[in-house]
Design brief:
Largest sheet: 4 strands, antiparallel
Number of helices: 2
Helix content: 25-40%
């Protein structure tokens, strides 16, 4: 079952997002293994990122193997963790 994650970074900016995404995604043309959707943009008072993975397990592998280690190392100019997080089992995913 697909698994969705919403991260909200209060005070986050486009510039911080760009620095962060460059550090955790393989490229602008591809998504990390298991991720099937990614969207991000400004929201009230900060920056919101929405990702959908093919399963909760692939999200956990990305989170534990790539995202958290790189954020804990510090990403110069990147978003400041921790974000406000909402996770959900995806009921309907359309192209």
């Amino acid at each position: 079952m697909a698994y969705g994650i919403v991260h909200y970074f209060p005070g986050g900016t486009k510039e911080q997002y760009e620095a962060s995404i460059a550090a955790v995604h393989p490229s602008r043309e591809s998504l990390p293994k298991g991720q099937i959707f990614h969207a991000a943009g400004p929201s009230a008072g900060g920056w919101t990122i929405v990702a959908v993975h093919d399963s909760k397990e692939s999200w956990e592998q990305f989170r534990d193997g790539i995202l958290m280690p790189r954020m804990q190392q510090g990403i110069k100019g990147g978003l400041t963790p921790p974000p406000q997080e909402t996770a959900f089992d995806v009921h309907n995913l359309q192209p």
